[in-house]
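User:
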Amino acid sequence: MTYAYPLVADVASYQSDSLASMQALTAYGVQAVIVKISEESADGGAYVILLSRK
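Assistant: Predicted structure:
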């Protein structure tokens, strides 16, 4: 399927961040993702640190 604009996925922290999930997005034609990193802190540090501990 051809789209006028590239497909972009908005990924939330409660969604899987596994390689399989990202590959599935790619299979659907997603070319970029948006990730909010500013949850619960002004600079986003709290969220980034939480994810780095996975």
